[in-house]
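Morning, I've got a small favour to ask if you have a moment. I owe you a coffee for this, so here goes:
>
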Amino acid sequence: MHEAGGRIHLQVWHVGRISYPQLQPYGETPVAPSAIKPKGAQTFITAESGMIDILEPRALTTDEIPAMVEQFRIGAENAKRAGFDGVEIHAANGYLIDQFLRSDSNQRTDENCERGEDEQHGVKHVQPAEDQQQASDHLKSFW
């Protein structure tokens, strides 16, 4: 693809509360900004089970959030090492970063509660500060 002049980008995301223990390491309860079950949400587990209602997630502790940020960093680093030209941080469609940005899934009262006015707040947490301008410049030139 690169030989033909093409570029390829990888989308990095975390489902947060839109999951099920069977899909999590060690069968753990899915995590979210707050322990709020999404209304009417389901996920697919197996052909036998079909769609299953999402359970109430476990709220991330303030101390756990840096580890979530680190997972995004590692994913981006792995993509670069694998030869991708860039990474898109997926912050929409009800997944983890989007959950931090919405009042129906984020009822936190700590420093991770900001919503609304600064919609990029959650994205800036997962994008290292030194990379923010470079990424912004790259996207401007790419698109």
Q: What stands out?
A: The longest helix spans residues 65-82. Helices lie at 65-82, 96-101, 121-126, 129-142. The two ends are 19 Å apart (CA to CA).
